[in-house]
Specification:
This protein has 358 residues and is of the alpha+beta class. It has 13 helices and seven strands. It is elongated and about 85 Å long.
């Protein structure tokens, strides 16, 4: 469906945990138990992807955890549509409904296939009885998301309701904090009841809440930082009439990887250092206008960092965005310098807060 699938590092490590818990039953059954968990996550995420496609929501990536996936939307419009009205409820209930329905179908099938199938024997999930584990892993993952802990589905609905009244960032921080508290309580309950699946679920709820909390913090930063605060104001430009040999000399004396190409005050293109070198090697000396890219986007000094990041990520390899004012290039923002500029800006703001506090 054109969605990038990412797997959190702890997900494959859970296979080692399953092998350790299934030591008495053998390696094959330990791996089988891990695959049962993978199947439950797959059912959940396929259902959510289908609902997202049906609602017209564009997704950029899904980060997979053993408790399910965390979605990253491709544009702000999809994010807003997903957080409002029926779309929010549809996305929240698609996963649990798919898991519980699959559990019911599997349970009915196994009970109908053989009278000796012990569906309700303890433990419900174990490598010794993988068929029974298939049913209860599906049911368990579906019911888990009815717990009001963010980033579980019920927790997302609570956050959405809070966000409509108090704003996205405060709601995200509150929901993430509540999710981490409930995750800790779940792990403690698992220890007291000697239920390792509760401990595992609590651990991954904690991981998911922390990831979401970092995302909320990042979003709050990128929506407040303006381009004038992080753009490079000391930069080199090239002219379309410059020869490639002259441009290469400019590259030698600059740390830039990409250069705005200007004719007078007007921006007419962008060219990279590597493009200049490749053209000189293949075709010999020529002019910058023959190798520059005329497909570019520009930002304004008052644009937010979030807007510019979306332009960079949606630009199919775009590595530089010139910042223009009244048609004149007043700065540049590149992937190369953005992180260093952000860290320096954070340090500047910290010092200003300390001085204002003194």
């Amino acid at each position: 469906m054109g969605v990038e699938m990412r797997v959190h590092a702890f997900f494959p490590l859970l296979a080692v945990v399953c092998l350790a818990l299934s030591a008495a039953d053998g390696v094959a059954r330990g791996l089988g138990l891990f695959l049962v968990l993978c199947a439950a996550v797959a059912v959940r995420e396929i259902a959510r992807l289908l609902v997202a496609a049906w609602l017209g929501l564009r997704l950029r990536a899904v980060l997979l955890l053993p408790i399910g996936g965390l979605f990253a939307y491709a544009n702000p419009e999809s994010q807003e549509n997903a957080n409002q009205g029926g779309g929010e409820f549809a996305m929240a209930f698609a996963g649990p409904l798919a898991n519980v329905a699959t559990a019911l179908v599997l349970g009915a099938t196994f009970l109908g296939a053989g009278a000796g199938f012990r569906l309700f024997d303890q433990p419900l999930i174990t490598s010794a009885y993988l068929l029974r584990s298939m049913v209860w892993m599906q049911a368990g993952l579906g019911l888990l998301h009815l717990v009001p802990a963010y980033p579980l589905d019920c927790g997302r609905l609570i956050r959405g309701s809070f966000a409509r009244r108090h704003g996205f960032a405060p709601a995200g921080r509150a929901a993430s904090g509540l999710g981490q508290v409930l995750a800790l309580l779940t792990m403690v309950a698992g220890m007291l009841l000697h239920n390792y699946w509760l401990i595992i679920a609590g651990f991954f709820i904690m991981i998911g809440a922390q990831i979401e909390d970092q995302g909320v913090f990042f979003q709050s930063v990128v929506d407040t930082v303006r381009m004038r605060e992080v753009m490079l104001t000391d930069f080199a430009t090239l002219s379309p009439s410059d020869t490639l040999a002259d441009a290469l000399v400019r590259c030698v004396h600059s740390l830039q990887e990409d250069f705005p190409v200007v004719r007078g005050p007007q921006l007419v293109g962008i060219v990279s250092r590597q493009r200049i070198v490749d053209a000189l090697r293949s075709d010999g000396n020529g002019y910058v206008q023959s190798v520059m890219s005329r497909a570019f986007q520009v930002a304004r000094p008052e644009d937010t960092l979030g807007t510019t990041i979306r332009r960079l990520t949606a630009g199919h390899g775009l590595a530089l965005i010139p910042v223009t004012e009244s048609g004149r290039v007043v700065g540049i923002v590149s992937v190369q310098n953005l992180m260093s500029s952000m860290s320096l800006l954070a340090e500047q703001r910290r010092i200003e807060r300390q001085e204002s506090g003194d």
